[in-house]
Amino acid sequence: MKILLLIFGLLCCLSFAQAQNVNITLDSNLDLNCKFEKVILKNSDYNFESLTKDQIKRDDINKLIIESKSPNFLKVKNLSEFINKINLDIKIANKDIVLIQGFNADKNYSESAVFTKKTGELIHEITKNINQENKEKDISFYSCKSNKNST
């Protein structure tokens, strides 16, 4: 049930974010170590099935960097190669959350992430074949801790 609420919250945030695209209200420099917890997969083999770290091999994120400066600068490093290379379409950072989303040039692949500062939870969603019936989703959940004193 908690997973469904998190996914619903993510989708609501993305709908809200698309109306604003950029809303940076807090300067911060986060350096995080994120441990993989579980993944929800939707593809030809799985239909929104949840797999834990004991059931699937996924790497932790040892140095996730999130830098934000009001009013419109937000950079995320080491979440994925895709996020490292693109300009983000959606960038939101405030005292509670960081929300990002980016698309490839054809708009058939996207990655988004929500980091909740209070709990240290990170949700990273990858969507492939967006415009097709056989859309694939990979939603990874991480538990993050600061590598240093972050603001």
Walkthrough of the structure:
The protein has 151 residues and is of the alpha+beta class. Helices cover 16% and strands 50% of the residues. It has one domain (2-146). The protein has two helices and ten strands. Strands 1, 2, 3, 4, 5, 6, 7, 8, 9 and 10 form a ten-stranded mixed sheet that branches. The radius of gyration is 15 Å and the shape is globular.
Strand and helix layout:
Elements: H1 2-20, E1 22-24, E2 28-42, E3 47-52, E4 61-69, E5 73-77, H2 81-85, E6 90-93, E7 97-103, E8 109-116, E9 121-128, E10 136-146
Parallel strand pairs: 1-6
Antiparallel strand pairs: 2-3, 2-4, 2-10, 4-5, 6-7, 7-8, 8-9, 9-10
Average of pLDDT:
88
Q: Which word captures the global form?
A: globular
Largest sheet: 10 strands, mixed
Total domain modules: 1
The SS-based structural class is alpha+beta
Number of helices: 2
- Please state the CA-atom Rg, rounded to the nearest Å: 15 Å
**Uncertain runs with pLDDT below 50, 5 residues or more?**
14-19
Count the beta strands.
10
Kindly report how far apart the N and C termini lie.
Answer: 32 Å
SSE arrangement, N to C: HEEEEEHEEEEE
Kindly state the percentage of residues in helix. 10-25%
Strand content: over 45%
